Amino acid sequence: MDRAPEPHSGWTFLTNHSRVLASIAADSTTRVRDIAARCRLTERAVQKIIADLEEGGYLTHIREGRSNTYRIAAHTFLRHPADAPASVADLLALLAQHDSARPAAPGAAD
Predict the structure, then answer these.
(1) Which of 2, 25, 44, 60 has the most CB atoms around it within 10 Å of its CB?
(2) How many Å is the Cα radius of gyration of the chain?
(3) Taking the domains of the chain in order of start, what are their residue ranges?
(4) Contact in structure between 67 and 34 (CB atoms under 8 Å)
(5) Computed from CA positions of residues 94, 58, 19, 37, in that sequence, does the dihedral angle turn out positive or negative?
(6) Does 5 sit behind a cis peptide bond, omega within 30 degrees of 0 on the bond before it?
């Protein structure tokens, strides 16, 4: 049985919702278990975040057998008025740019 991720104290710049959305953007067929591991969240927390994103109109999913394929509503605007007129696509582009600039993890395959 997997251990729960270590808790993080203090504040962070990115919300768990943005982390989950970025993880789905990287792989639209990713599993909740894999999102949880990548974002260092519990599977239950990821399920709740996905439900929030779907309820807000930012995400939909299609059930394909035992798997889900997610679709992000990329042109939806971010929720906070101070973020206007930024869209989900703008946020994901910024996060993708950040990820591509990261050095490879030690021991990562070339």
Answers:
(1) 25
(2) 15
(3) 16-100
(4) no
(5) negative
(6) no
